Amino acid sequence: MRCGKLADPPIAAGRCHIGVMQRQLYLVAYDICEPRRLARALQIVRAYATGGQKSVHECWLLPGELLTLKRDLEAAIDRHDDSVLFVRLDPRMKPRTLGIARPPADPSFFFVG
Fold first, then answer.
1. Could you give the strand order of the β-sheet that contains 24-31, starting from the edge strand earlier in sequence?
2. Structural domains in the chain plus CATH codes
């Protein structure tokens, strides 16, 4: 088996291993005052979101994706008027919903490409 194949089991003697990064579940919420910046923030976050409502989105992110998302949102907002919140969630916890809210329906796999 060639080195670098992501499906490799844990390291065996004499084999190379590429660490598989784990995606973390984040809740990304924002309060943007101006409509153009709001539309831009929505566009940026939706590129990473698996679900959400209005200005609150669930995002499964790799560390590099989190940094990129933060950088892109920071460039899109006004630091004096707008706010963005990133909360890392425990994916083992069952979501609870009230009213017309729908529970998140995350796919069993992610297509990246």
1. 49-53, 56-61, 24-31, 83-89
2. 29-89 (3.30.70.240)
Q: What is the 3-state secondary structure (H, E, C) of 57-85?
A: EEEEECHHHHHHHHHHHHHHCCCCCCEEE
Q: Is the dihedral of CA 98, 100, 103, 106 positive or negative?
A: negative
Question: Residue 48 corresponds to which tokens in the numbers above?
Answer: 């990473």
pTM score, whole prediction: 0.70
Distance CA 65, CA 46 (A): 13
CA pair distance 43, 91, nearest whole angstrom: 24
* Model confidence pLDDT, tens digit, residues 28-60: 999 999 999 999 999 999 999 988 888 999 999
